[in-house]
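Q: What changes when iron/sulfur cluster is included in the input?
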Amino acid sequence: MPEINAHNFREQIKELSGEDVGKCTAGCPVAVDMDYVPNQVMQLIRMNEKDCLLKANTFWFCAACQTCSARCPEDIDIAKIMNTLRRLAADDTINVQAKKIPKLNREFLESIRMFGRVYELGMVMKYNLMTGQPLKDVSLAPALFSKGKIGLLPHRVKGLDQVKKIIKEGKKF
Ligand code: SF4
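A: The predicted holo structure follows.
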């Protein structure tokens, strides 16, 4: 048997027990950036580690791609749990930063609804005002304008009606 180390531990467990404990995490495209990867999240929930979990960045990084849910040997809809954790974190007092994220999310979608694409300047200005930090990152503006990274005025895409229709349909879910 090869030497067991941190890199092959999972494979060794799988070989010996026939159980793959990390199928969900192995397929997650953003696991590398998460404080806790999907299988650790399931374990923390089982251990009732609420505070630890709600402070983590994991569910904010989750792209809802459903890979973990499709691969879970226990048929757990992990992506749905990630979404539930997002909602809990937004309502909880434990993570002050988390309260700002739904606001940014809302402004992002509103920008898409109005223009069919993100109007960065308008979105950031509204978000900064709503979160009581009107001058946040203002020093970055000149460089962003001069390099053409953000525009002064919004641009509407062609087929904006179709975009609005998609957003309207999406709200039903
Ligand atoms: S749904 Fe989220 S947690 Fe699951 S694999 Fe996709 S990004 Fe990772």
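Observations recorded in class: The pocket of iron/sulfur cluster is lined by residues 27-30, 38, 62-68, 78-79, 82 (CB under 6 Å).
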